[in-house]
Design brief:
The complex is a heterodimer. Chain A is of the alpha/beta class. Chain A has helices spanning about 5-10, 20, 25-30, 35-45, 55-60, 70, 80-95, 100-110, 135-140, 140-155, 170-175, 180-195, 205-215, 230-240, 260, 270-275, 295-300, 305-320, 330-335, 350-355, and strands at about 130, 160, 200, 225-230, 250-255, 280, 325-330, 345-350. Chain A folds into 3 domains: about 5-95, Fumarate Reductase Iron-sulfur Protein, Chain B, domain 2, CATH 1.10.1060.10; about 130-235, Rossmann fold (3-Layer(aba) Sandwich), CATH 3.40.50; about 245-355, 3-Layer(aba) Sandwich (Rossmann fold), CATH 3.40.50. Chain A starts with a helix and ends with a helix. Chain B starts with a strand and ends with a helix. The mean pLDDT of chain B is about 90. By secondary structure, chain B is an alpha/beta fold. The chains are: A alpha/beta, B alpha/beta.
Chain lengths: ~350, ~260
């Protein structure tokens, strides 16, 4: 059941093949099927009843990070992730989604996160802002979450964290598309955040994206506003509430995560944080708006081997420019890049580096 | 509220659509989406119907709408009806309302009939009123909120200068403003359920309508001419400087609304 709107995006390709050159999954697998264009063509064929939506096709729809690199450079201005998400919904409805994906969906329905574990609590009282930690940070990068909270304390910001933080819906949305089940999960989260009446500082930009882009579309907004943790930290630096450190004499490169780069167009705050932490900066190929994805927590969940290779590709980008220090401020990129740190290279959490 | 009928219309996804020699929108080969105001009407109906009631969606268009109608079943509608007949092509609002009214009569008694206040392609907003007239029912236009109790309905209407609260009895026809009720998404279980619900298809003969009552022949009005107000998309020079661009935009807005 692919919507007419999604088909509109799938069928308007001019065959410029730009997305083929940008797709980080295609780079690693070399499979033609892993270009956004090919996925659009497949869905178009299904719509024209020239092809069955089968297990192989469902598998192809999951070999995508939903990183939006293709959207960013689409000559026609169309959005492949829009129809890829709907194809995932179709795969789940038809019971054709890969076993590994169904296992993660079960985990999310049971625990709110793909890891299938009870989310560690970071609960604390505060009056200035509400910090939303998110599933990936709480389970896979708890040090980054602790570092952010310590940093806010250092800056004199009274930060509240919910004792039982509800899931934002971003993980389920990536696994089975934007369905009513995801919307209901988001509604619970929005209600809990709004009850605090505090502005929300979101550590994981993937959570920030769904809160700012999809929640309003679904009929609920975060009334006091949503800010990414990186933008908030950069503001604290600009206001002099956090002090810059002495130069370290170390050159590092910031990895722009997909959402900060392409949804929020936020490049400067991470670099300001890096400079304040004492690093000299250099840039990798495909940074800023063209940032190459290093994987996501959800994709790691059902295709860990491929995500490790994709993250490895980002490390290659780093060493290619003669640099050995990767600077990150997102728990999901931290999780993926830490899978394969090359010998002699370092992965740095910028929140920790500023402490 | 037990039985609710919602009239929905499929409108072009893109704003760039062509018209034929008779000034009708060319709908072949373009992708369609449900009109935003009709989506609000459906959500309002689903909330009023709750677990016990039923919501029927009714549309008029090409046979290609069967699949999009199934999407509305997945969102919670219990029955979907498609009126499709080449003889109905080119209908104006009155001919459309006549066909819809015939379908409503055939489908049975409804406590409430909801429509969107207007479709984004035609922008007339006339069908809800004409439908009510054809059915001999009262009509409330531009509804923003709807609440039902055992004695009737409370409706908040959007006016140009404010809002108005009304009380009314059923059955009645109410048109809803776009985005007043954000439509729920299709759920996984809803999509599985929708696969097993047939979309009912009706034509002019099923509705007992003569060819001269439908389509162009049955229309009281005809579009004689159309003119594009702005020739070309880019009217002014391209401005790449943000500040100058904002100033230019401000100037245009002042021209439109001094």
């Amino acid at each position: 059941m692919i919507s007419q709107n999604a088909l509109h995006h799938a069928e308007k390709c001019r065959f410029c093949w730009m997305c083929r050159h940008l797709c980080p999954v295609q780079h690693q697998t070399g499979k033609e099927l892993n270009t956004p264009r090919a996925k659009g063509l497949l869905l178009s064929m299904v719509h024209k009843e020239a092809q069955q939506f089968d297990k192989d096709m469902a598998q192809a729809m999951y070999e995508c990070l939903l990183c939006d690199a293709c959207t960013n450079d689409c000559a026609t201005g169309y959005q492949p992730p829009l129809f890829i998400r709907e194809a995932r919904t179709e795969a789940v409805v038809s019971e054709l989604a890969p076993e590994s994906v169904m296992h993660l969906i079960d985990n999310v329905e049971r625990t709110g996160n793909i890891y299938g574990v009870e989310k560690p609590g970071f609960g604390r009282e505060g009056t200035d802002v509400l910090v939303y930690i998110g599933e990936a940070a709480a389970v896979k990068a708890p040090e980054m979450a602790e570092n952010l909270l310590k940093l806010l304390e250092k800056a004199g910001v009274s930060a509240k964290v919910l004792e039982k933080e509800p899931a934002s819906g971003v993980m389920l949305g990536d696994l089975m598309g934007y369905t009513e089940e995801v919307r209901q999960m988001a509604a619970v989260c929005a209600k809990a955040l709004n009850e605090t009446k505090l502005p929300v500082v979101v550590l994981d930009s993937y959570d920030a994206e769904i809160m700012t882009q999809k929640y309003p579309e679904w009929g609920f907004e975060i009334a006091a506003g949503v800010t990414t943790a990186t933008a908030f930290t950069a503001k604290l630096l600009a206001e002099g509430k956090l002090e810059a450190k002495a130069p370290l004499g170390v050159t590092g490169a910031c990895h722009d995560d997909d959402r900060l780069a392409r949804t929020f167009h936020e490049f400067e705050p991470v670099r300001r944080m890096a400079k304040a932490a004492g690093y000299d900066l250099t840039e990798m190929f495909n940074h800023g708006k063209l940032a190459k994805s290093c994987g996501t927590a959800v994709a790691w969940g059902y295709m860990p081997e491929l995500v490790t290779r994709i993250a490895g590709g980002r490390w290659t980008d780093l060493t290619r420019i003669g640099c050995d220090t990767m600077l990150v401020a997102n728990p999901e990129t931290w999780q993926c890049l830490s899978l394969c740190v090359p010998e002699g290279c370092r992965l740095v959490d910028l929140f920790g580096a500023l402490l | 509220m037990k039985r609710i009928l919602v009239c929905v219309k499929a409108v072009p996804v893109s704003a760039f659509v062509e018209v034929d020699s008779q000034h009708r929108l060319k709908r072949d080969g373009i992708n369609l989406q449900w009109n935003a105001a009709d989506a609000s009407a459906l959500e309002a109906a689903l909330r009023l119907a709750g677990e016990d009631g039923s919501v029927t969606v009714l549309t008029m268009g090409t046979s290609k709408l069967e699949s999009p109608l199934r999407e509305l079943l997945a969102r919670g509608a219990s029955r979907a009806v498609l009126i499709t007949d080449r003889r109905m092509a080119g209908a104006d609002t009155q001919a459309t309302a006549r066909v819809l009214a015939a379908a409503v009569k055939k489908l049975g008694d409804f406590d409430l009939i909801l429509c969107g206040c207007k479709a984004i392609d035609g922008e007339t907003g006339q069908v809800p009123g004409q439908l009510a007239a054809a059915l001999g029912l009262p009509c409330v236009s531009n509804g923003e909120t709807l609440e039902a109790d055992p004695d009737g309905l409370t409706i908040t209407r959007r006016l140009e200068t404010g809002t108005q609260e009304l009380r009314g009895r059923t059955p009645t026809v109410i048109s809803l403003c776009a985005y007043s009720y954000p439509l729920r998404l299709p759920g996984i279980l809803g999509m599985r359920r929708a696969r097993n619900i047939p979309v009912e298809v009706l034509n002019a003969d099923d509705l007992g309508l003569l060819p001269e009552q439908c389509g162009l022949k049955g229309s009281a009005t005809k579009v004689l001419a159309m003119e594009s107000r702005f020739p070309g998309m880019r009217r002014g020079p391209k401005e790449t400087d943000l500040t100058l661009g904002a100033k230019a935009l401000g100037q245009i807005l002042r021209e439109v609304r001094p």
